Amino acid sequence: MASYSASGTVSVRPYVTVDNPATPTSALASDSVWTARQILVVATCFILNMLDGMDVLILSYIAPALSSDWQVSPESLGVVFSAGLAGMAAGGLLIAPLADRFGRRKLILASLVMMAAAMFASGIATSIGELIASRFIVGIGIGTVLASMAALTAEYAPSKHRTFAVGFLQAGYPVGATLTGFVVASHLADHGWQAMLLAAAALCAIAIPIVWLVLPESIAFLLSRQPKGALQKANRLLASIGQPQLDALPPQDVSETRHAGVRGLLTEGRARSTILLWLAITFSFMTLYFVISWIPKLAVEAGLPAKDAIYAGAVYNIGAFIGTSSIGLVAMRFDLRRLILVYMALAAAALTVFGSVAMPLAATLGTAFLIGVFVQGGFNGCYPLAASLYPPEARGTGIGWAMGVGRIGAVIGPMLGGFLLAAKVSLPVIFGIFAVPVVLAGICASLIRLPKAA
Questions:
Q1: Going by fewer Cβ within 10 Å, which terminus of the chain is more open, N or C?
Q2: What digits encode the pLDDT tens for the residues 137-158?
Q3: Domain co-membership, 275 together with 162
Q4: pLDDT grade, residue 437 (50/70/90)?
């Protein structure tokens, strides 16, 4: 069950329903107290999101070397960028919803195996076709992991801090991207771009046994789907977060099926808000993935040396970490939807300045930092917004579909950027074009209504 406030905050009771006499209401998650288990869940998901940031952004950092080595045109490079993003759409739309049926933990582990194997394949690719195929599979894994982690974090975090926790989780993405940028900048010339991809594959492989050992299953999933041994597993997890154990599993509520699957996204008064959420994320993704895919090359176009251009991408991601973390904190006091609008308006201003004003290195890096703060911060506000909109039994599907549909914009953004660059369109016009979608994203987010659950 969940209740929603007019300000956009959400109080979710993920484990049981209060009208079920077989289950004590004291088994609900604490409103504000963090336990070691809850911190471990969020920390593990944060680290996994760092790996996602590494796997996605590493391609933009190695793009100049790859382009020079294989003589790849901007159009072809745009297709390589978009292949991973198309895979992320497929993962979000087709695979992530399975978490509501089979469990968050299983989907995350399966996705990590897929990502490690496909990253290794991309490191030994010998043609653009092989690279496109492997990046598509990497994207499937990432799209699945992102949705499953957001749902799991929303279900384990104390309700008072849920918006912050889901937002903070997303900050792992730019942290991973930032560290990757600095590592690539330091070692690319000596070891080559293939070695960078193989190292990323190794890190994904190392994460698999760690996640197997420390990441728990969703308690909401155990009590609603009731797989074999559900009561014992749920009681162990309830004890680990300081909650009383249950004497028996609650009776399965047949009425919950109306919330499950895609149908649950469009019922209970959520249809209008679901469509607005999809539009907000689609517009956000257009600009976000244009920026993160092309910012090193665009910095070169703006006159920076290649190494400083890689640092521009890394500085952008430092800003992204600050923006993602700050919006989660500020949203504990203010309306998250209005905050997204403010962030996106400031993002449009920063984009316009970056593309139109000739600046020295320090100012260019500072503007890249601000773009990261507002573009990535505003976009990542959509994750806790999506987690607030949907009940636990449809949360994996809701976040997966929101991010999956939004990948339409993620595919369009880098490809459009490649075509504009190939057509020799001026930087002020390019950045002006991509300032429009973030403003539209903010407007759509501000219009979302969070319905009260029955």
A1: C
A2: 999 999 888 888 888 888 888 8
A3: no
A4: very high
With 60 as the cut, is the pLDDT of residue 187 above it? yes
* Tens digits of residue pLDDT in 14-41: 333 323 333 333 334 456 688 888 899 9
Give residue 209's pLDDT: 94
Whether residue 193 is found in the same domain as residue 279: no
Are 99 and 156 members of one domain? yes
Tell me how far apart the alpha carbons of residues 116 and 209 are, in angstroms, rounded to a whole number: 12
* Dihedral sign of CA atoms 378, 154, 165, 160 in order: positive
Task: Find how far residue 248's CA is from the centre of its chain.
Answer: 36
The alpha carbon of residue 350 and the mean position of all alpha carbons in its chain are separated, in whole angstroms, by 22
Q: Please check whether residue 443 is in contact with residue 379, taking contact to mean a CB–CB distance below 8 angstroms.
A: no
Note down the domain range covering 297.
264-453
- On whether residue 386 sits in a domain, the answer given is yes
Q: Could you tell me the pTM of the whole model?
A: 0.73
350: in domain: yes
Q: String of b and e for 387-415 (b: at least 16 CB within 10 Å)?
A: bbbbbbbbbbbbbbbbbbbbbbbbbbbbb
Give me the number of domains the chain comprises. Answer: 2
Q: Considering only CA atoms, which of 163, 92, 71, 173 is closest in space to residue 388?
A: 163
CA dihedral of residues 93, 337, 45, 92 (deg, nearest 10): 0
Q: In terms of domains, do 398 and 344 share one?
A: yes
Same domain, 226 and 280: no
Rounded to whole angstroms, how far apart are CA atoms 315 and 300? 15
